Amino acid sequence: MLQCVATTRRPGPLFPRLLGDVGGTNARFAWQPHAGAAIEQVEVLPCAQYPSLADAVQAYLGSSRQANLQTGSRGRPACAAIGIATPVLGDWLAMTNHPWAFSVSALRSQLGLERLLVLNDFTALALALPHLDEQAKRPIGGGAPVSGGNIGLLGPGTGLGVSGLIHAASAGVLLPIAGEGGHVTLAASNALEFAALETLQARYGHVSAERVLSGGGLVNLYGALAQLRGLPIEHLTAAQVMQRAAGTQAGGDRDPIAVEALDLFCGFLGQVAGDLALTLGARGGVYIGGGIVPRMGRLFDRSPFRARFEAKGRYSAYLQSIPVWLIDSPVPAALLGAAQALSLPESMLTAV
């Protein structure tokens, strides 16, 4: 069953559709005019520029690029599906890494929708995985996926999203997971990791996977390493840390602290991805989403990620056979998943 909040006046595959993928930094919106149509007119809006999700949606619908959606022949959307970076536990939702909070039923009424479906953003992304083109995913080692096997999904962005697809043999379908695996406690595997996590524990108390495996987490690692080396802590962004690691910042020299932070980040990500693969029995493969890893480019390919993914003692051979893919889709894949959610039968939806 797909955990979501669904409000509706009448059921059915209503069109046109508004699709949304809302993270802690950006909100992505798109349009699907009719059944079988491609997802089009994707726009990315910075969340910080809008007081509420409703304002961001209205800005998308009212922009010059989208004006015909309100005034032209296609009219306003009949229904919408929005994946959002927060637990979906009831009608009232408050985002984990952004101030937006809202009532789903009130949002549907405010936007004049016949139907509104709201689900976790990584649950939406999980729904897209079986429909990704081969060119939308880049292999990161491993063997061939097992047909009908469970699938793991995680992705560092503003936070750390975690989900997956569980094979329901009796129904012949893959069911998405709605969980908050990004907030599990992160463990160290060597002395440097232990020292870095101890430094972060002094600052935060609980060090979750998200405290390290996110944009802010990469900055946290850089600061922790600088502190351990007795260096001043600079206020950088994740993009600046990656630039320093690659030597693409002004001056061009690679920053050894940034290189070390990136290696720690990728090693931790491999560890957590391997844990997820073992937990789910993800012999159908593991996917890496989110906005951080694609920006690393080939630095990720040369990182400790794959070695740490497989470093599970007696189960190393089990992990070696599991393929990993980096999602690299021209259209945000979670928007495709949101469209898939709207096409699911009502019997697969669990309102919460």
Walk me through the structure.
This protein is an alpha/beta fold. It has two domains: 2-127 and 332-351, ATPase, nucleotide binding domain (Nucleotidyltransferase, domain 5); 134-328, 3-Layer(aba) Sandwich (Hexokinase, domain 1). The chain has twelve helices and 15 strands. It has helices at 53-62, 67-71, 104-111, 121-128, 191-204, 215-228, 238-246, 256-280, 298-301, 305-310, 316-320, 333-343; strands at residues 2-8, 17-22, 26-32, 40-46, 79-84, 92-94, 101-103, 115-120, 137-139, 151-156, 160-168, 173-176, 286-288, 324-327, 349-351. The chain has a seven-stranded mixed sheet, sandwiched between helices. Strands 9-14-13-10-11-12 form a six-stranded mixed sheet, with helices on both faces. A two-stranded antiparallel sheet has the order 6-7. Strand 6 (92-94) and strand 7 form a beta hairpin. It is globular and about 60 Å long.
**What is the CATH C level class of the largest domain, in words?**
Alpha Beta
**Count of alpha/pi helices:** 12
Tell me the number of strands.
15
Count of discrete structural domains: 2
The rough form would be described as: globular
Q: What percentage of the residues does DSSP assign to strands (E)?
A: 15-25%
Task: Please name the CATH architecture of the largest domain.
Answer: 3-Layer(aba) Sandwich
How far is the N terminus from the C terminus?
A: 11 Å
**Structural class of the helices, strands and pairings?**
alpha/beta
Radius of gyration based on Cα positions: 21 Å
Instruction: State the helical fraction.
Output: 25-40%
The biggest sheet amounts to: 7 strands, mixed
What is the overall pLDDT average? 90
Q: What's the CATH topology label of the largest domain?
A: Hexokinase, domain 1
Strand order of the largest sheet: 4-3-2-5-8-1-15
What is the element string, with H for helices and E for strands? EEEEHHEEEHEHEEEEHHHHEHHHEHE
Residue runs with pLDDT of under 50 for 5 or more positions? 69-74
